[in-house]
Design brief:
The complex is a heterodimer of chains A (about 325) and B (about 150). In chain A, about 30% of the residues lie in helices and about 30% in strands. Chain A is an alpha+beta fold. Chain A is elongated and about 80 Å long. In chain B, the strands form 3 sheets. In chain B, strands 4-11-9-6 form a 4-stranded antiparallel sheet, with no helix packed on it. Chain B is built from 2 helices and 11 strands, in the order αβββαββββββββ. The chains are: A alpha+beta (about 325), B alpha+beta (about 150).
Chain lengths: ~325, ~150
């Protein structure tokens, strides 16, 4: 049933008209009976669309759910590029990354996008919790299978950060910057986090999942106390509630652009762009690593993206993982 | 430990790159040190205990098996940080002695918030974990020795 007459086509038809569109016209355009169309409309209503029906005039779209899988699918042609060729929206899942990794290992095609309205076990680096209340924020994971060496895979986290920063800047006009390697900050507070997971052996990447969480409509007061001083949301920064769909669409578009650059020109243009968006380089930072805290001057990144930290004794240290805090 | 065993142990070591081997168990301490460039063997054996023989021989067998390529070595595909558990609070994925199946996750290597779950490639038993939790690893660095079963 989900074959030819897709929900996306119905939403597309309804959106194409500002007023009513007759059931007859829609049924003809879709090649289905009016009874079948009615069933379809009922299902769409259940997934959050407010559709008015009138015997004499037909159907009219009043409001769409703020995270609409049909709108996201309509934004990406399955033929166009790779990212967004398949979009799945779940109401509730433990973690979009965990599930996307499962789907990927069962053969989900490259570019599969997984979204959820709520994560019950949203997570960040090293098992940390990512606060994921129902319907407030964006929780999205993308399956990729880049044909690059596992040694170059870290570019994926830089690509995702640049895509997220660019998309959120465009949508909100907020001065989003990147903290090494890929936290998105506004006024020094975290707006978005990215976690990439990968299955690879020495020779090749089997699959990777890029997960991004963006705090959109979470009120400042509802941010858990322990992260209130370090986290923020689009609502907290702008005072405006926003639909989540444009965030999903724009971030995916920006990822798609950069993924193409990676395929065509390699990783260097992406690392250069990242450098133009980061606030970490050129300042004194404190890094908490598995082996303790170190402070130093962030001089740059190497070609794998490792942070080059100049220590007080003048030596240069390469950092591959750790939490960065900006000095006063 | 018999003199014959010691001799064969020393012979085995000669054929490997191992420069120092220390076996310590309830009162028995065997330390064999070989200077890399001079091939000099320095053997210290303090107290002898028959009971430890089996255990020691097992380790020797491991070395020998590794040398003959019987043990499967799991290596790191990226430069990063080695983690034995999914989070600092949770149990390690595997320990020495764990039975492991093909496809089972053995550890995570992190680089720039890219988490790489390293999967086991052979059914077997973990005989050695070569890196400490939280330590950096290089590209191609051996992480685990698995004895196939």
């Amino acid at each position: 049933m989900s074959g030819k007459t897709s929900n996306e086509q119905i939403i597309g038809l309804l959106k194409g008209k500002s007023g009513f569109i007759s059931g007859e016209e829609m049924a003809a355009a879709l090649g289905i009976s009016r009874a079948a169309l009615w069933k379809r409309i009922s299902l769409l209503r259940k997934s959050g669309y407010a559709i008015e029906a009138s015997c004499s005039r037909g159907y009219r779209l009043l409001t769409s759910p703020d995270l609409s899988v049909e709108e996201i699918r309509n934004a990406f042609s399955p033929l166009q590029g790779s990212i967004g060729r398949e979009v799945i929206l779940l109401d509730r899942i433990d973690s979009t990354n965990t599930y996307a990794m499962e789907l990927a290992s069962r053969g989900a095609p490259e570019g599969t996008v997984l979204l959820a309205n709520e994560q019950t076990g949203g997570r960040g680096r090293r098992g940390r919790i990512w606060v994921s209340p129902y319907g407030k924020n964006l929780y999205m994971s993308v399956v990729v299978r880049p044909d690059i060496s596992p040694r170059d895979a870290t570019v994926l986290t830089f690509l995702a950060a640049a895509a997220g920063a660019t998309a959120i800047r465009a949508l909100t006009s907020l001065p989003v910057s990147i903290k090494w390697p890929n936290d998105l900050l506004v006024a020094g507070k975290k707006l978005s986090g990215i976690l990439t997971e990968m299955k690879a052996d020495m020779d090749r990447i089997f699959h990777a999942v890029i997960g991004i969480g963006v705090n959109i409509n979470m009120e400042r007061e509802s941010l858990p106390e322990e992260i209130r001083s370090v986290a923020t949301s689009v609502l907290a920064e702008t005072g405006k509630i926003r639909r989540r769909t444009p965030f999903a669409v724009e971030i995916l578009r920006e990822m798609e652009k950069r993924y193409r650059i990676l395929r065509e020109k390699g990783k260097y243009p992406l690392l250069e762009e990242w450098l133009s968006l980061t606030t970490t380089i050129g300042r004194h930072v404190e890094v908490t690593t598995g082996e303790g805290k170190i402070t130093g001057f962030a001089e740059g990144i190497d070609e794998e993206g490792m942070l080059l930290l100049r220590l007080p004794d003048g030596s240069l240290r390469k950092i591959g993982s750790g939490d960065i805090a900006y000095g006063a | 430990m018999e003199l014959e065993d010691l001799k064969s142990l020393m012979e085995l070591l000669k054929e490997t790159d191992i420069t120092e081997l220390q076996i310590e168990k309830e009162g028995t301490k065997v330390k064999i040190k070989r200077e890399k460039f001079f091939g000099h063997l320095d053997v210290q054996q303090s107290i002898l205990s028959e009971k430890k023989e089996a255990k020691e021989m097992k380790q020797i067998k491991e070395e020998a098996a590794e040398e003959e390529g019987k043990l499967f070595t799991v290596t790191s595909p990226i430069v990063g940080t080695f983690y034995r558990s999914p989070s600092p609070e949770s149990e390690p994925f595997v320990d020495v002695g764990s039975r492991v199946r093909r496809g089972q996750v053995l550890c995570i290597i992190e680089a720039m918030k890219l988490m790489n779950e390293i999967e086991n490639e052979v059914d077997g038993v973990v005989v050695r974990i070569l890196v400490d939790n939280g330590h950096p690893v290089e590209y191609g660095e051996p992480l685990f020795l698995i004895e196939p079963v």
